[in-house]
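Late entry, evening session. Most of the bench is empty. Finally got around to the prediction I had been postponing all week. Sequence below, unchanged from the version circulated by S.P.
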Amino acid sequence: MTPQLPRPHRDDVLIALVSVLAGLLLWSLGVHSNTRPHFAPAWAALVPLLVMGGLELLRRTNPLVTLSVGTVALVADQFTVGNLATILMYTDLMYAAALYGKPATARRLPVGTGLLTVAVTIGSVAWLRTPQALLIGVIAGIVSFGPAMTGATLRNHRDAANAARLRAEQTALLAEMDRSQAVAAERARMARELHDMVANHLSAIAIHSTAALAIDSPATSREALGVIRENSVQGLAEMRRLIGLLRDAGAGKDAVAVPTLDGLEALLSQARTNGAASGLDFVLYDGRSEAGPPLPTPVELAAYRIVQESLTNALKHADPGTVSIRVSCEDGLLSVGVDSPYGGRHGPRAPGSGAGLIGMRERADLLGGTFVAGPAGPVWQVRATLPAEEGAVPA
């Protein structure tokens, strides 16, 4: 198949048509641009005019070719009576070559035409030795250097505008990515908070309700209902606290106070109540020094939630026995350890999804700490190490 030539731009067709008609009008009125002696008939000036008109149709698609052919047509026009429209169309071809041509062409044309203008000016003055010879250099600059410089300048402005638009689009894209990541991170944080606050209560409710259904004893049922009611009330309070926290944060108010390690005793007291029916006891070994510097709030919250989730897992899966919790702070690190009896537990247990272990690991990773959990013989161990100094916590 024969490749089709690109269709001329509508503006180029209009420029070519108006220029050719104007040139024909000037020729018919006898207005010529060349007053020097010549030997070609008057109609010969129409040939360069029509060639220039045809080249105007290709000024965008083949700017370098049109400029080369146009230069030949301009030289040919000087051997006829000349036409002002032909010269004006050549200036437009020079402008289009700088604007639509290759980047190298746009850089070289102003330099080349500038040197040509200087050379023509010096040559004319040296040859004619009259002040009027400077006009030849001025005309050469108007025809060549002026359009080339104008086209190159406009091209630079256009490229700068395109680059600015691209940067703006990239900035908007990065901002949208940051927003999406922030939303995802906030959702993950809310999921961890919701799981850690409510899972403990729901696990206790599930275990004691299962025990009440499995053991046909009024005393057991009454005890189970008491534990269920207590955990329901506390779980509802925790849910209300979380909802209040979200509402206050959305309204720009101060955040609700978050739990700290000072609340571990209350947490263990609740765990003892919930785990009494399963034969579990809970012991806390707090090795922190009261004279030490206060821990960063994110670290205290993460440590509290890790202990809370570990106790929840113990209520679900631990064998009867003692669950020990150790908290210590030394060498700029806060260490949290939870050991619970581990083995083939019989009796009612709450199902687990593994989200608690994932949440504990995420909390440690976000603070630049470490987290390990797994069986070690007859004991299930949880070990977390968190930075205890303010400057060591990632922003």
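Two things to note before I forget:
The chain has two domains: 10-171, 259-395.
The CA atoms of residues 47 and 305 lie 90 Å apart.
Will write this up properly tomorrow.
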